[in-house]
Amino acid sequence: MSNQQHQFPQGVPYLSLQQEYQALRSEWMQAIDGVGASGAFILGPNVQAFEEEAAAYIGAKHAVAVASGTDALVLSLRALNMGSGDEIITTPFTFFATAEAISLVGATPVFADVEVDSFNIDPASVEQCITDKTRAILPVHIFGNPADMTPLNAIAKNHNLHLIEDAAQAFGAEHNDQRAGSMGDCGCFSFYPTKVLGCYGDGGLITTSSDEVKARLIQLRNHGATQPFIHVEAGYNSRLDEIQAALLRIKLRNIEKSIAARRQIATWYDEALSQLDLVTPTSSANDRHAYNLYTIRHPRRDALREQLNACKIGNSQCYPEPLHLQEVYANLGYKAGDLPVAEGLCHETLSLPIFPGLSKHQVNYICEQVAKI
Length: 373
Ligand SMILES: Cc1ncc(COP(=O)(O)O)c(C=O)c1O
Known about the structure:
CATH topology of the largest domain: Aspartate Aminotransferase, domain 2
CATH superfamily of the largest domain: Type I PLP-dependent aspartate aminotransferase-like (Major domain)
Bound molecules: pyridoxal-5'-phosphate
Radius of gyration: 21 Å
């Protein structure tokens, strides 16, 4: 073990984008030069081409680029006319932006519990949350693992609800051969740099099969304008810029390689951790997990975290507190014990390093340190 430790005296970062940057640097520099020379910086030809290419990859009729994943959620909810008095069922085990978007449009988040294995929203719990104010279900494909969309779609149909996918962490993930973002009324993506498809700044995308929703999204992202200086509603300044779109086009061409690298790393972890007293991520046979994060459950999570920190191995506690118990939602009246599975996960989960370029030696070294606890 100590020999191994000497192999990585600097530890292992949680995430490194350097290798990827070096690989695409010259292509991106050329693209930036092209954007500069064109003089089109916002919503220009690269954005349009990226929207078409992303829609084709995802298997959606339309894609509308926006300024962030959070905006993708907010604009989708607005485009589907969600607002005050409406309840939207979502998961408490996600990044805050999912529920925040619901609050920002004036609607109320209603939290369903999650499945202990997939960490995703539990369809049985969703059914129990439905009231006559429910308007939509907002599942998250958490960590890149597709939510169980087949029963969720059935529930949505039976109760006449919208279904909005938060696919921020799940670009390229698949459920029954359908890609994340192609299974609901809207699919919302984030291109924050840590994501499976990340840009070098902020960015987001919405997919939809509806011509009407697409038109509304285009209006909303540009101040509610139907034509220059003519506004029919209050919208947002939520536009993707050309430099980010040019980068995303380059990265999209390599996305399958990048997802394959993540899946290979996950397999190395699965093998090396299989004999230990912990739970590795699960993935249904019909799904393709995109492994934005590799998140384990460990009965002594905090001790494990200390051990990894001592060896300078990057890790992240996703998520330390479920959303229904956060101060911001004190007014909703939830109490500890209401959603026991999500609450339990917050005490047990830890995300380990995963990014294209992470080597098998590094993974083995990390697993040796995990094994010490
Ligand atoms: C599940 C989820 N939803 C929404 C977002 C928001 O995306 P952005 O940071 O691009 O606004 C994130 C970002 O971390 C996320 O993980």
